[in-house]
Amino acid sequence: MKGHVLVAVLVYWISLAGAHTESANNWISTIWDDFKEAVDCAGCQALLGGLKLVAGFGESFMEDVLIGVCDISGAEDSDVCAGVIANEGPAVHYSLSNLKIGSHTAKTFCASLVGLCDYPAVRPYNLTFPSPKPPTTRPPPSGKPPIKVGHFSDTHVDLSYETGSNYNCTKPICCRSYTENDAPGNTTAPCGSWGNSNCDPPHQLQENMNEAIADLNPAFSIYTGDVVAHDVWLVDKAEALQDFNATYSAMETLGRVYAALGNHDAAPLNLFPSNQLPSEYNPQWAYDTLASDWVGLTGIQSVESANEHGSYSAIHPNSNLRIISYNSIFYYKYNFFSYTEPMEYDPNSQLEWLINELHEAESAGQRVWLISHIPSGDPDHFHDHSHYFDEIVQRYEATIAALFFGHTHTDEFQISYSSYKNRNWDTATAMGYVAPSMTPTSGPPSFRVYDIDPVTFAVLDFTQYTADISDPKKKPEWVPYYSAKKDYGSLLDPPVTDAHAELTPAFWHNVTVVMERDESVFQDYWARRTRGFQVSDCTGDCASNEICALRGADAQYNCFVEQPGFSFEKRDGRENSEALWKKKFQPECNHAGMAPLLAKIAYRASLERE
Ligand SMILES: *[C@@H]1O[C@H](CO)[C@@H](O)[C@H](O)[C@H]1NC(C)=O
Ligand SMILES: *[C@@H]1O[C@H](CO)[C@@H](O)[C@H](O)[C@H]1NC(C)=O
Ligand SMILES: *[C@@H]1O[C@H](CO)[C@@H](O)[C@H](O)[C@H]1NC(C)=O
Ligand SMILES: *[C@@H]1O[C@H](CO)[C@@H](O)[C@H](O)[C@H]1NC(C)=O
Ligand SMILES: *[C@@H]1O[C@H](CO)[C@@H](O)[C@H](O)[C@H]1NC(C)=O
Question: Which CATH number describes the domain made up of 147-161+200-557?
Answer without folding.
Answer: 3.60.21.10
